[in-house]
Write a structure and sequence with these properties.
With 296 residues, the protein is mostly helical. It is built from twelve helices and no strands. The radius of gyration is 21 Å and the shape is globular.
Length: 296
Amino acid sequence: MKKVFRTIGVIVLLLAVYSMLQGLFTFLAMCVTALVAAVQGKLDIAVLAKLEGFADLNAMSGMSGVFVWSLAMGLMLSTVAMLLFLHFTGLFKLRRSLFKSISFRPLLFSTLLVFTSMFALNIFVQWFNLNDNLADQFDGLVHNVVGALTVSVLAPLLEEAMFRGAMQGYMMRRFNPWVGIVVAALVFGLFHMNPVQIMYATLLGIVFGWIYYRTRSLMSVIVGHVLNNSMATAVMLLFPASEMEQVSAVQPALVELGFEVMTFMGFVALSLLLAIKLHRMLPPVSRQWSDACDKI
């Protein structure tokens, strides 16, 4: 029972610290950006004085202009701060061996597995017609150079170090590996606090978790996660939100459900074949699981 309570404590600690850092750095970046904008005459200080908290400030900004920079900088700084927290507390140390802990073939097949899983899950999640409450925020961030870099590269690095390296790794050393994989994926999905992302991130998190378990290398899931976020960023940059809404509106008339199902099943079959191939090319995992970085 002590192991359960300690595990819950680790999960709560990780989520609480990251939430605190994200809120703190976003608030500081917002204040600095607002003052700079006021000095430049782009924002009226009298308007700021009448606002009642961050929600009003965010609504006023409309996710455009100077406030996008504050959100991007806040996200980047909190991401870096959380990575340092993980490293110096020993929850997950960022060693140089992290980048050489997996050979090319397993890395290639794990990346291909993430790629096919992404397409299968995108089709699957669309069938539920879930709300995307953060579409405007992400659209603003990816059109900002700092925001795009953070969303595409830094955020995947942190999320894998936090949810797979620290959280899942902690649980897999103490419980059945699948307990760590599933629980970390559920927390990962719920942490996004966005209906469409909760389902997608949870299911993709299980894929990430299994890859991390079998390869014992966080690098394998970092590359896949960067691929996932970078493709999403590229789509949002290439296709404005208005165009995506028009495509979604005409999609049912152009694409039959049967074709979608067949496409989904095809990507699922490819994912299973890649998972079997990856499983067979790797040595069995020892009963006492450990990250490959621990042995380098």
